[in-house]
């Protein structure tokens, strides 16, 4: 009887070691895959367009309104990224705390946050160069424009859903009318 209990104990310990090894290597591979992620925001086309216009201004005449519009669009993108970072930060921290995400992803996220802050400071400096006093208000105006754009998109989506709902009601009513005949 004692040898049977000993064999059972060895069997359970053996499976525990196999399972523990599997879990260890699984999480190790998973964290290595996460560290190979690309930058949080790999490109910034609005910044590229703005700097292209600045370099083009050195050789040809670029209207100041075009430069202001490009800088304003760049500020709008920075606002959207800042909102995205702020909304995802708490979720990412809880995932890292629970062990579902690697700590490396947190560092990558913090680097993206710092990069966006530096980008926003650069936009303020560029705005001051283009027009005195505009650096303090460019992000206020950009956030108003972003909110307006989002509201317009939501309104369009609601209208589309209302239209689909009305079509469904119409189809149901037509089916009922044809069933009554």
Written description of the protein model:
The structure is a single chain. The protein is mainly alpha-helical. It is built from five helices and no strands. The radius of gyration is 28 Å and the shape is flat. The N and C termini lie far apart (82 Å). The mean pLDDT is 87.
The biggest sheet, with number of strands, parallel, antiparallel or mixed sense and barrel status, is: none
Mean pLDDT score:
87
SSE string: HHHHH
Question: Taking Cα atoms only, what radius of gyration do you get, to the nearest Å?
Answer: 28 Å
Helix content: over 70%
Span between termini: 82 Å
Helix run count:
5
| Structural class by sheet pairing and helices | mainly alpha
User: Can you count the beta strands?
Assistant: 0
């Amino acid at each position: 009887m004692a040898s049977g209990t000993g064999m059972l104990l060895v069997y359970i310990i053996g499976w525990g070691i196999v399972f523990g090894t599997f879990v260890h290597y699984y999480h190790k591979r998973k964290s290595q895959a996460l560290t190979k992620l690309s930058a949080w925001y790999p490109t910034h086309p609005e910044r590229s367009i703005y700097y292209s216009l600045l370099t083009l201004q050195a050789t040809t005449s670029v209207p100041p309104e075009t430069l202001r519009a490009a800088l304003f669009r760049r500020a709008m993108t920075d606002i959207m990224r800042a909102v995205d970072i702020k909304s995802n930060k708490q979720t990412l921290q809880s995932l890292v705390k629970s062990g579902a995400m690697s700590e490396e992803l947190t560092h990558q996220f913090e680097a993206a946050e710092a990069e966006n802050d530096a980008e926003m400071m650069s936009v303020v400096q560029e705005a001051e160069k283009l027009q005195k006093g505009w650096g303090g208000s460019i992000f206020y105006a950009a956030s108003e424009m972003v909110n307006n754009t989002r509201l317009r998109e939501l309104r369009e989506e609601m209208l589309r859903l209302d239209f689909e709902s009305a079509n469904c009601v119409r189809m149901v009513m037509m089916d009922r009318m044809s069933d009554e005949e």
